[in-house]
Each structure stands twice: as structure tokens, then as C-alpha cells.
């Protein structure tokens, strides 16, 4: 299912650092170091989502982050360049459908401006190759298994 538009806002970017995904039980305290780093502006990406069943914390690895989170940094992130118009439909479905066929697991997040799809670190090359074959364009991605500007 190729991208629904050729707009550069739908081009993809592979973010350079691994991401962590942590699940806490309801009522379990968020690590004080994460709260401190959020307040101090450390790290370039954090998402904290609370439901009645869990708290999910997703973030991009950074130099001074606690070891317990570095150990969980087993994902790479593909970002839709954005910002996207809110009347667009099917973007996430279009992006994840070929990954499903290729058996690449995903963890998806959305913000006001755009969408993010995390894939296991050891499958990032497969994910990029699959999406390129499907017609997606990478503004920044992998080159020779290394992140590079295209």
C-alpha cells in the first residue's frame, strides 16, 4: 500500500539513536531520573501515556540516560517527516501494511504533527527496504547499514 501522497511531508526519516519502550503497572512510580530529565529538557523524544491498565514510556536514548533504560533501547524509529494535515486518512495503515507483510513488528505513536513507527533494531534495514519497495521516500535513512542523509 504505497504512500497516499507524494508530498514531502510524508517522506520518512530514520532517527539516529535507538529508542526504549518501558511498561509500568498502574500506580507504579515513574523513575525520578526520567521526570528530572523531562524537566531539564534532556533527550530529544519522550512519550508518556497513561491508561487505566498501564503507563507506557517511550524515548530516544541519550548519553546520560540511566542504564536501566539503555538496556531497553532495542528499537529504531522511523518518523513521518510531517507536519501532516489532520484531514489525511490511512497514513499509519499505509505505512504499517507492508511491514506486516514483511513480518516486521511495530510500535506506533502519534503526535499532533506526525506519526512515528518503532521497529526492532535488528530489523531496521528490512523495514527501510520494505518501505522503499512500497514507494515510500526516505529524506534521511540508512546507507550501507549506517544512518546517513540520502
UniProtKB/TrEMBL annotation:
A Pfam family recorded for this sequence: ACT_7
Xref: Gene3D superfamilies: VC0802-like
Domain of life (superkingdom): Eukaryota
SUPFAM superfamilies referenced in this protein's UniProt entry, alphabetically: ACT-like
Record-annotated CASTOR ACT domain positions: 72-133
BP GO terms, sorted: amino acid metabolic process; carboxylic acid biosynthetic process
Family annotation (PANTHER family): CASTOR ACT DOMAIN-CONTAINING PROTEIN, CHROMOSOME 1, WHOLE GENOME SHOTGUN SEQUENCE
Protein's recorded name: CASTOR ACT domain-containing protein
UniProt organism field: Gymnopilus dilepis
